[in-house]
Task: structure prediction
Amino acid sequence: MGRPKEFNPNQAMKEAMEAFWERGYHGTSVNDLLAEMGLNRGSLYDTFGDKKSLFLATLAEYEKQGRRHMAEILQQPGSARKAIEQWVKTEAQTCSGPAGLRGCLGMKAAMEMAPHDADVAAWVKQIARERDQLIVKTIKRGQAAGEINPRLDAKVLARYLGTALAGLKIMGIRGPSEREVSEVVSIILGVLVE
Result:
C-alpha cells in the first residue's frame, strides 16, 4: 500500500496552470514546475505523469471551468439573444486591463503548440467543436423565438462568435481600453439581428 499524498493535487494543478499560463509550455521547465507546485520529481510523475501530460491536464481543467461558466450563461431560461449577449460581454471583460494583458491560456497553448503538436491540435479542434455546439443550440432557440435573424446559418454564426471573441482576446494582449473592447462587442452582437 502506497503512502498517502502529502500535498493537495488540485492546488498543485492550479500552480502548474499558473506556470504554464505565465511562461508557456516551452518556457516552463520541469524544475520550474517542481518549484511552483512544491513537489519532488517522484510526486510530480506519480501523480501527473510527464510534463506534457500535466500540460494537457491543466488545459482540460482550464476548459472545464470555462465551459461550465459558458453553459450556465447560455443555457439559462429566458431570452436566448440576451444569454448570448451576456456571454459575449462576460468574455469581453477579460479582454482589457490586467486580464487582457495576461491573455487566455487556451489560446496561448493553441498558438504555441497546435501547429506542431498533434495532441494539442486535437484538443483545440475538440474544444472548438464542443463550444460551437453549445452556441448553436442557443442560436437556434433564439431563432425559433424570433429574436435572432433566422436567415443566418446557426453553425456559421456560432463559428463567427467564437472567432470574434478569439480576436478580442488577442487584441487584449496589446492593452485596449474598455471602450475600445465595448465598441467591438457592439459590432459583434449587431450581427445577431441584422
